[in-house]
Amino acid sequence: MTQGKGTLYVVATPIGNLEDISLRALDVLRRVAAIAAEDTRHTRKLLSRHEIHTPLESCHAHSSRQRLARLVQRLEEGDDLALVTDAGTPAVSDPGGELIAMALERGLPVAAVPGPSAALAALVVSGLPTHPFAFLGFAPPKGGRRKRFFETYAHLPMTRILYEAPGRLLRTLRDILDHWGDRRIAVARELTKIHEEVFRGTVREALDHFECGVRGEISLVVEGAPEPASEREEGAWLEELEQLLLAEGFRLKSAVGRVCERYQVRRKEVYQAALQILKAHEEPMAETEEGSEHHGKGK
């Protein structure tokens, strides 16, 4: 403890059920000088439930550096403060991390009061390997950054956890299918609430299940990328892909889908290989036709 300085307590709060809060968290929230909250109206409901009357300070993604500096100044003057988010653990895909960083830069003590986390709750009920895992937060909403996001984490050989808004769920599932393949997935919705749901299956099955839309807070837990195929395995799926593509009446999409499902290879990789195969077979045909044309002109 730094002499004469206040402590910033990073306090986890419920992700849905208001009973999911620790006795220590309640004690800290009662005795600190103020609570820095992502949404003061939301946090006030939790405080009212437990008859806590500690003053609230706003601390969200749009808070100015000056506002955060004032909170740090209070810590330097000896006030203990608590940092909370709307739900779960502060600084996990949450703007509270900036206040924590500023406090640490000034040499101020920061203490964790652990508790609920939507990411960990989804992970432990997913049925997928719980270690190692990577928490990826929210995917960028659009553009090149979104494409790079899915490409960057496509080969991670570990369970991947994402958050997503209900309006973007189907798009994100399609992007996962295109870049990561038809992996096993758990879609956890409204955890700890009345309408809690955990869907477990493949990405393709999840697309069918949620095709009519969805509501609520969502966590996605996705199976890690498969181990790189050996040369023999790669040769097998490439050979089958070529046979399917050259079979009469077999379409590109169907051939790619069959190989992806059978060999658990990423759709994007199979699709690019398919295009190369088709191009390789088209070029000799074009050369043959061109040769026949010249031969005809020579008659």
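The record above closes out task 2.4. Task 2.5 opens with a second protein, given below.
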Amino acid sequence: MATPILVRFYHPERGNCVGVQLDETVYEVTEFIPSIGSFLRHSVGHVPDAIAGLQSIAHDSAFAYPTSLFNELPQAFIPHWLAPTDEQEIWAAGVTYERSRAARQEESQDGGDIYARVYAAERPELFFKAQGFKVIGPQGKVGIRQDAIWNVPEPELVLVANPAMELVGFTVGNDMSSRDIEGQNPLYLPQAKVYKASCALGPGIVLNPSAEWPETTIRLSISRAGQEMFSGDISTARIKRRIDELLTYLGRSSDFENGVMLLTGTGIVPPSDFTLQAGDVTTISIDGIGTLINTVMVV
């Protein structure tokens, strides 16, 4: 049986919709599941049963479409994917890979001892990234800051949790970052990480309440005028933190009434002499989860 994927999409005859993808078909379920948040709330305490129920709802849908219908650039009156989030806050974990620790130290003007300490600390680095309704979806345009000179994408596996901080599934994320701004001073992290079009997610949420990291590979490719400028990959086995560890710390003293999504850090870092330019295309693929493609613009 196909693993269900919870998606959002736009159809000119139906508007913004919630759907369930099974194999190469998307079934609209908006009548029963009007938002991602509604499903996450419904799943509390019985995630496997909620996923099974979603599959049953999908088979009763009156509207079914081939997935290929939505592989278009986002524009009015053309079917396309939307980011698989709506009411959720998007958070991010930092320095979860050894390579990320080294890269943050390299960019830091004071040697970056703070990053070595957080890599080894019991408490992980966690920070707010975006509001769900501002997240960029597949084929959308992600931003690089006009006041930054060293910008990179950060390809990441994303955890999707319900209001009880129970894992519901995974998606693909791009944590756009201005390395020169953060490198000047760690207190500039919100400016380096949180700005217009700085977060992209998609194409859908692979519904899998696993307690363990999926054994998979994260891949990044950056192309410019049709030529590949950078590529890299890393195994999820290189993530230092556990899923339950990250979600437990994220949920402490916090309420996420509509669920929450957590980018889990990057282990792929382009060389220090590379920076993104407007028009570049980033392709992030995670085996078994999906592929997220975006074009870069200056914001």
